[in-house]
Request: fold
Amino acid sequence: MDTAAESAHPAAASGPAGQRVTRPGVFADTRALRACWHPVGFSADLADGPRHCDLLGEALVLWRGPDGRPRVLSDLCVHRGTALSLGWISGEELVCAYHGWRYAADGRCVAIPQLADPGRVPAKARVAAYRAEERYGLIWVALDEPRWPLPEVPELEDGDWAVVSAGPYRWQCDAARQVENFTDFGHFPWVHPGLLGDPARPVVPRYEVRTAGHVLRYSIVRPEAANSDDFPVFGNEQDGPPQRHSRYELHLPYTIALRLGWGGERGMVYFFASQPIAADRCAGYVVIGRNYNLGQRAEVIQEFEDTIFGQDQVVVESQRPERVPFDLAAELHLKFDAVAVAYRKAMRSAGLAADPPPG
Ligand code: FES
Ligand SMILES: [Fe+2]
Reply:
């Protein structure tokens, strides 16, 4: 296991009037993140009309062509800057609401109705088009050629597992803060007592993180709370104090596949991906698969997730800086924070976190 840095030189400190100030530091690099897949919405929410979303500070419009596949363009008509998401879909094309210019899936404007010959479109009349994929009930977008494929989570595509989605959880922090929170072992008894942790058993057991390329893997057997009457979502009916076996795969930059078991046949997959809306805003999507409780109403697990993410949001949105400082000297890491240490190192060595450009 990596030895955690023991000294702290906080990137956030108190300013003269007691306000928090953020010093320059190493943060997620929004330019480098363009070459990764990111979730931008649930499939089910992209139905008949175009929809706006933001990714890495860029305004996008999502829509489905007649073949049902998702398409994504810049949400800014080249004519007068109107949001194309205000428009509508006509056959293979997206029509701007202001003057009816028609755009093809590759971003080319193909008709301008104000012209005597609407097809005589100047070459400059086009908007940026991006790649989109649909998988695990989510729409994914990469703004540049993606460096890595989407993670493989066969359980979510196996018809024998029940799959429920929850979220999106929109937080005022960067996606890295949300990812680190999802995988932070020390906080469960404090932030989620009785739901995910047992305050009488706060010690984090030893674990090791292995990093291979852009994927971190680690497993832990840790104490958890007994199933609550309000949220009977876990499969932990074993003897003695409940223990949870968790196997994590953290795929850079912001996707986690967590496989849970309790020593028996029951299995659960938590798939979590955070959308970097902007440098300091994110939205978390959760897709959960289970091979038990197949008939349980989706709302039971959704209300549980809403509660958990609500408890986390208060804490994480108070963190300063709002973005994970990837310099290891910037926060105090102990041994049980080994995931955060390995994550921060991996993001830097993959070139996904960098010093801000001068000026
Ligand atoms: S602003 Fe889109 S057609 Fe004029
Ligand atoms: Fe949490």
